[in-house]
Amino acid sequence: MRTLPFIMLAWLCLSVNGQERTELPAEQEREELILRDHYAFSYSVVYELSSFVAYNLTKEAALKSEEVKGKNDEDEGVSTGTADDKDYKKSGYAMGQLIPAENFAHEPETADKLFLMSNIAPMNPTFYTKSWKNIEKLFRAWTIQGEIDLYIVAGPILADAPFGTFGDSKVSIPERYYKAVLDLKNERAVGFVFKNSYAQNIFYKYAMSIDELEEITGIDFFVNLEDTQEGKIEKHYAKEDWDWEAAINVYGE
Q1: C-alpha span between 204 and 207 (Å, rounded)
Q2: Quick one: 176 exposed, middle or buried, by C-beta within 10 A (0-12, 13-18, 19+)?
Q3: CATH number at 19-69+77-251
Q4: Angstrom distance (rounded) from CA 25 to CA 168
Q5: In the prediction, which pLDDT does 3 show?
Q6: What is the pLDDT of residues 36-64, one digit of tens each?
Q7: Mean pLDDT over residues 91-102, rounded?
Q8: Residue ranges per domain, the chain?
Q9: Which burial class, exposed, middle or buried, applies to 238 when counting CB atoms under 10 A from its CB (0-12, 13-18, 19+)?
Q10: pLDDT at residue 224 above 70?
Q11: Which of 76, 97, 78, 82 lies closest to 170 in space, CA to CA?
């Protein structure tokens, strides 16, 4: 159990190594926002989960994607502490990676950090292996086929609370998960909401505008965009703007 008080870490810097953090949503109250070189996350001690992770998926990373192995451990960078992998034993839930480590196979230090508990959330095992991982494959195919970068935010929908819990750390069990995807080059974006159970791999069934996703999650996405551009991109979603067969075209499956 955590005994430290609630903390929100105030980060005034919106860039790392001179790069603007386009992927970042607005800071969440009573959470700790941590910026790392290739990703960021906002950790909630109330739920022992990150409410969001945010990262930039490049074509280079997608082309070098491969399976990565690592050790799940507490994230010592979170001041309140995180859940422990022991919490998940006999829980019946997979230790789902919010950011897949294989996306950073070319950056071993970052890939190692993605096994820390700040990047882990409880997922139905079938949902994790058959849905969550497959839509990440679709995102990689989009970057390769379109020769674009994608800015991605993902996490559990904590607005659905209260939740059931498990383990000594009282890890919350989310009912739904979301993803928000921005293609800045083509000024388009799409959001997704999934129940924490099996989802069909017909992913446009779960797609919506970012404005709609913000209403569901209570999170303000892509706040570092210029206001006019943000408003234009986030209100629009059209199924035909995206190639839903890209994973088949790129990977043959």
Answers
A1: 5
A2: middle
A3: 3.40.570.10
A4: 30
A5: 36
A6: 999 999 999 999 999 999 999 999 999 99
A7: 98
A8: 19-69+77-251
A9: exposed
A10: yes
A11: 82
Global pTM value: 0.91
Q: CA 130, CA 135: separation in Å to the nearest integer?
A: 9
Cβ contact 191:176 at 8 Å: no
Q: How confident is the model at residue 32 (pLDDT cuts 50, 70, 90)?
A: very high
CA 43 – CA 21 distance, rounded (Å): 18
Evaluate whether 50 touches 119 at the Cβ level (below 8 Å): yes
Whole-number Cα distances in Å, 158 to 45, 118, 177, 240: 12, 15, 9, 30
**SS in 3 state form for the chain?**
CCCCCCCCCCCCCCEECCEECCCCCCCCCCCEEEECCCEEEEEECCCCEEEEEEEEECHHHHHCCCCCCCCCECCCCCCCCCCCHHHHCCCCCEEEECCCHHHHCCCHHHHHHCCEHHHEEEECHHHHHHHHHHHHHHHHHHHHHHCCCEEEEEEECHHHCCCCEECCCCEECCCEEEEEEEECCCCEEEEEEEECCCCCCCHHHHEECHHHHHHHHCCCCCCCCCHHHHHHHHHCCCHHHCCCCHHHHHHCC
